[in-house]
Amino acid sequence: MKFEGIFKLTFWKAVAIVLMATGFAAAIERYALGLGATTNLKDTFPWGIWIGFDILVGVGLAAGGFTIAATVYIFGIERFRPILRPTILTAFLGYLLVIAGLMADLGRPWAIWHAIIMWNPHSVMFEVAWCVMLYTTVLALEFSPVILEHFKLQRTLRVIKAITIPLVILGVILSTLHQSSLGSLFLIIPGRMHPLWYSNIIPFLFIISCVAAGLAMTIIESFLSSRAFGREVELPLLSEISRVIVVVLALYFTVRVQDLMSRDALKYVFMPTYQSGMFLVEIILGVLLPFCLLLSRKVRSSKTGLFYSAVLVLLGFVAHRMNTAITSMEHWPDRLYVPSVQELCVTLGLVAFGFTAFAFVARYFNVFGEAPHEVDEIREDQPAELTHASFE
Amino acid sequence: MLKSKGLLIDITRCVGCHECERACAEANRLPQEPATDLSARRWTYLKSYNDETVFVRRLCMHCNEPTCVSACLVGAFTKTETGAVLYDESKCIGCRYCMQACPFEVPRYEWGSLAPKIQKCRLCYERIAGGGQTACAEACPAGATVFGNRDDLIREARARIDANPGGYVDYIYGLSEAGGTSVLFLSAIPFEKLGFPMNIPKEPIPDLSWRVLSQVPKYAVAAGVLLFGINWITARRTDVARFEAEERRRAITEHRER
How far apart are CA A102 and CA A52, in angstroms? Predict the structure, then answer.
């Protein structure tokens, strides 16, 4: 195969290369010197941005994968098929980056396979580990037709096609379990977390918020790839998605406020603390603002309006996960955390790698085009047109 | 079988001689060095309050139903028959969820190591299994830390409070914290003023996540049935649509032929 233009340097390519190089260097340093020398983690703050961002956010952004797959395959809404492949690709890459981040964060990464044979079903982390392993496999299989088509491996392709529906269903189950279990991780820490974020419905909140974020991610990636590859944006499709986001945000906000009220924690919102400030930023900028914006038809049908609203949804989601994992556990003066340069470099490097890998696969494989072997695809409009044309 | 052992630490009797720290370091081959809190090299730490007149020991509480045991995905922690909660580094993958999960913030990490381990008090497991007592209890010259069966220690603590109601707050710390711990504390000063976390659930903490975890298989099966069901319905709809399209096409061709 030919990789035309792969060495042509553009501005964003240069940025990505720099970020990946520094991230790689920081990772080397982490393995050479250990966690203590290269991170700002400590006994009173054992989890930092590698968990709060790389893992929690990475998994959340992959949520578009199961929502769009379910929409197309389970609910049979075929018009979303054009964005199916890019979304699955995003999810798959997201999970690979989660695993990469995990390898940096784990103290004994070489022992990661222990999770396969040493079982403790009472541990939420056990559920998380198995969800990562199984869902990454499922995503690889869901995306595999793109690769198999490219190399014309028809027999394997037929096998994958035959098991698509069970695969998608397994994917939806695993993915929702994984999203919720990341929230469940925090159920066991009632004393340490700020009441604005600790709640016994945190697994449920994680599922709702990831749907909004996953869909926002499909909008964003659609816009970015349209710029990168000079494609036309699927605007009607994306504004339809944005309506779903409006509903999900409304549900999320309602459940969140109800939860705060039922725990008598609403009062903390109005206390002048660092935590309440972060909470307000998260809710106002990340939930209420995009909700109001997307309510307007004008915003929904404009490219820039859609794009920036989706970015806000995404940032609100990032803020929620980071606040849950980091802000809620910070206490003056003994428990504070600011990520080290190395931690930031590894994280940014992984993000840059994600963008680069997406761009590479999207450019050289058939991610956006029509799938050549969709026998089952039906066009409801086609026969109708035919009918009109011929009976006229 | 051994009865579950434990420690009763009477803060009113502690004279602040730091013998427990010294004996602990000696018994566990840890460096004798100054410290400011628990660490990977310091498994018990004597913290002073009220202008160095009150001294409070920090150490692993050895919960009856330890959060770390339930949190660890590879089962590196075990609650042993002596009452001690032990850590097995050969299983550990280093996720540090135990550190996050422990309500008493006891597990400490070897941050400087390239093969880091969790470190914490082992309630002198080998000494107790061999019929002895913990190094800290043995070393305590004031009888502030005493070793015994947990049941007996609870009775003893109760008796001390009853015999001197003015000298103690009427509370045994560890009796019900996190569902009960092997290490118990008595104090004359309210515990919250001595840095003891008071918001710890009185039930075993692992229950908090087990409530959700135990539902996972049910959810998976139910979701599977529901999704297959929806797919069955929509697939039928697709079939019908395809059939109708075929019919229409046939009608068109027939119309044209005519």
Answer: 11
